[in-house]
Model the fold of this input.
Amino acid sequence: MSNPFFNNTGPYKIDFLLEKIDLKIINKDINVTDIKDLFTASNGNITFFHSRKYSEFAKKTKASFCITNSSLKHLLPKSCIPIISDNILFTTSKITEIFYPDSVNDNFDDTVQNIEKTKYKEKVKLGKNILIGNNVKIGQNCSIGHNTIIEKNVEIGDNCSLGSNVIIRNSILKNNVHVLDGCVIGKKGFGFLPSQNKNIRYPQIGMVLIGDNCEIGCNSTIDRGSLSDTIIGRNTFLDNQIHIAHNVKIGDNCIIAGQVGFAGSSIIGDNVMIGGQAGVSGHLKIGNNVHIAGGSGVIKSISDNSKVMGYPAKELKKFLKDNK
Amino acid sequence: MSNPFFNNTGPYKIDFLLEKIDLKIINKDINVTDIKDLFTASNGNITFFHSRKYSEFAKKTKASFCITNSSLKHLLPKSCIPIISDNILFTTSKITEIFYPDSVNDNFDDTVQNIEKTKYKEKVKLGKNILIGNNVKIGQNCSIGHNTIIEKNVEIGDNCSLGSNVIIRNSILKNNVHVLDGCVIGKKGFGFLPSQNKNIRYPQIGMVLIGDNCEIGCNSTIDRGSLSDTIIGRNTFLDNQIHIAHNVKIGDNCIIAGQVGFAGSSIIGDNVMIGGQAGVSGHLKIGNNVHIAGGSGVIKSISDNSKVMGYPAKELKKFLKDNK
Amino acid sequence: MSNPFFNNTGPYKIDFLLEKIDLKIINKDINVTDIKDLFTASNGNITFFHSRKYSEFAKKTKASFCITNSSLKHLLPKSCIPIISDNILFTTSKITEIFYPDSVNDNFDDTVQNIEKTKYKEKVKLGKNILIGNNVKIGQNCSIGHNTIIEKNVEIGDNCSLGSNVIIRNSILKNNVHVLDGCVIGKKGFGFLPSQNKNIRYPQIGMVLIGDNCEIGCNSTIDRGSLSDTIIGRNTFLDNQIHIAHNVKIGDNCIIAGQVGFAGSSIIGDNVMIGGQAGVSGHLKIGNNVHIAGGSGVIKSISDNSKVMGYPAKELKKFLKDNK
Done:
């Protein structure tokens, strides 16, 4: 799915990029067209490689350039020119920012106008004081509540409803999606490079994708992805006050109760049920048909069909036995 | 208390209802006036009976019809005609929806107008951009903050204040109630029949009732009941970011700290104190004068005058001893 | 820092105050200029002393009067006249309310107007429908999103951004502060004297102070202090849905993940990292460079450089060993 939210300002000459970020130029007159991860990068792109965990992807990357360090560079294919950096993530962040200068902060969309002044006045069932940005797409038979803000380029399918006081940006909603009052969807993730006195915000150029038939409960927050997207599968229902961090991917037919939170980049399978106030740490894989009891704290990946409870979450039967 | 929020579109002939939901008609020319639970149903009503847990109520029900199954029907009195269904809750949901077609979704109230155009312009201390629906009742000496939305038929007593950015619907507030900024009160509960590809929303025709002298903290969410009501007793104070699910009943003089969550249908006594981030599972009974320590996860009912802590919550002294 | 938000309506004669709250007058024609805590009170002020924990401060207080009881009064210096009360906190609350009558409730600011009508129309990058109170100060190069409310006397530094649907009052923001969508900052704390039938709200005359370079995530709530201030240090980043109660002080360079909650009056050091959904009880001291794992419940103070996990939180290595 193409990303309508961030405009790639490239291509840039490689030496222009290196000079901009105070790295040594390499005297090559080559265009760099985009920045991508190791797996999705193609010829002409720049990528980054900062951990041996990704060696397999590094060996096969099609990128023309790769930000890396001296101890990893030998793993890259010959077609990929290494760019050596002391701080790979910082350099990656800076180059992303050159390509996508609007991706670091989340200032409000100043293209919005009252929806009454747009073609949607007739097409959508409208509340009062709705603001809508440039180039928003809204399908048939939708309803939008009072004071809701839909920022530029957002796409909303057919038969959707947004509640009142909703803020939505950088997001694509399929059909029959219901977003309830007070949600904030698509803001930048909590991603930055910590630094004394002034943290460095990491660019966040991903989207939020919400599948058919989903429901998102009141006052929930769903952050957009950084380089990949945050995804909610088909027919997944979220209760109130849920927090979903950047890059999280949730499967189909999940049921997630109130005040549950997900740290960044975890992947949740299909048909997963999660009780209220449970939390899932970052970078985990939760299998299909998993049940997580309310209040649990999940700090390890969970295989398919498991039932877990506790903090740290363990097999449900074991938890109940241990706590008799 | 009569419910001013949902309009009963009945009566309907029993065979009309059965035909509508693809059940076998019974060739009786009898009117059905309403759908109620086993206990509150009266002559002319239809009810449902899906678990032996409710056998005592079933034996005494005054309903004229009861959706049930073959193994339970013999428990009904002779005055009550069984309607056999493979999926009792689904059939109940469908019939509720016929009587109360507006009860399934929570689209914004399109009767609202700026309060400056109503009689409340002079009577209430008003912020800016307040929206108010048809037939809202507001008592003496009230104050309403900016951007707040009060949907149709809501009733607010004397000496109440609503903060800014509040959304309130399907609710009745007594006197001297304070609802702080950003609350969403009275939206439909998180109730549905899970189904692959497209969950089936269960109708939610209950209200939220808030007693005298209560305070509800910022960004909290209180869902209305499904068939019964969600109730907050007199002089109960809630801190910020609290979530109260449908049908929960909280007693008088309770103190509930920030980020606490209640799953559906639990009943909390009087003079209960609950520390921050604690969670209470569904369908529990918490007695009077109970203290629940912050962070606790309560998964069993608690008797009067107990002090508990932990996850799962246990007697406070035991918890402290176990965790020395 | 002087507090621009609450107007001291004093001085009052001591006998006027005592008569107002039904205490015995002392027949002294002396002015009382303000109410302060034992430590900050100066000559002419009234203070209160209700627990031996504060004996050292009591012995040295410069206050002219002190609300206390018979068993504590002998600890006061001769220069301080004891005012004996059966209910010290209640009496203190009542006298605070006489000096600061607006400090008990949080009714919306009725001085606000649309920012388009003010000098900030040209000076600030503005969204739609922004409301701004009297005497608000906004620095250079700021951005304010749609529907945001900035109440009277709030001060905002240079290069700050407020998101949309933000409510801010009784707060001072330094430079380069980012407050994201849906936050409520500066409302009164959850402080009151419990009383059957009608709790007595405790006056809350503190502020929220947010240091340079901070970020506050979406739908978070930060309450102002009661007698002291709630403080967020420099370059501290908060994720979404965080709750910070009154009088909490957080240091510099902290990183606090989603849905974390702090009960009142805790003091958090510098460079502290806290994982998602962790909770910190009230009146604790968390040292510098502390790491608190996600989901932890902290109920004791933590010394510098510790890493903790669990509920109750304990040393990280011990937690991991105990839970193998």
